[in-house]
Amino acid sequence: MGSAKNTTSAQRKARIEEMRKAERARERRNRILTITASTVIVAGLVVGGVVLVKSQSDDSSTSASDSKGGSGHFVTGKDGVETWSGTLARNHVTKTVKYPMEPPVGGNHNPVWMNCNGDVYGKAINNMNAVHSLEHGAVWVTYNSKASDADVKALEAKVKKTPYTLMSPVEDQKDPIMLSAWGKQRTVTSSSDPNVDKFFSEFVQGKQTPEPGAACTNGLSQ
């Protein structure tokens, strides 16, 4: 009888010890899992913080660069055409871009182009939309109040019959009549100046075009 009790007691102690061992093992596993999870979470927070800081830094950089139309200067060729020597950015942006030349010949620009299928605008247009038209290979004819009515009317007639061109007033430009393409610009003396035809011939969908064949319709119009 006493032997049976001792056996039962020993078995119970053995089971209790096994349960204790199992509980200790479970606690160790839980501690390991907790430490591992905490490490992963902390690492994730660190990586996330780095990514967020980098993203904010990139956004700041992009925002700063988006407001610039490019850097460089014009170099005048023997033919009188000025070629922009420097960088002309080509990002699509919605904020105002400050161009280093007037009228602009390239740089960051609005995602929507001005219609340039022989379109004549009687009022000033947004430079950012016009630059997008230049990217598509258009020639932009501009004039200010010093240009004669006769020259303006003659140029309007020429533009209306020439695809990939547009025309609008730009009061702040340096000369009465100017012609612009992507990275190219020149002044002409009048509508009958032979350099008008030469500029059209060379730069309407010319080699300077960043996106040849891109649309000049279904854009923005006044």
Automatic annotation (TrEMBL):
Pfam families: DUF3105
Low complexity compositional bias, start-end: 57-68
Lineage of producing organism: Bacteria, Bacillati, Actinomycetota, Actinomycetes, Kitasatosporales
Keywords attached to this entry: Membrane, Transmembrane, Transmembrane helix
Listed name of the protein: Membrane protein
Region annotation (Disordered) ranges: 1-25, 57-80, 203-222
Stretches that traverse the bilayer: 32-53
Originating organism: Streptomyces olivochromogenes
Residue stretches of biased makeup (Polar residues): 1-11
Superkingdom as given in the UniProt entry: Bacteria
Bias kind Basic and acidic residues: ranges: 14-25
InterPro entries from the UniProt entry: DUF3105
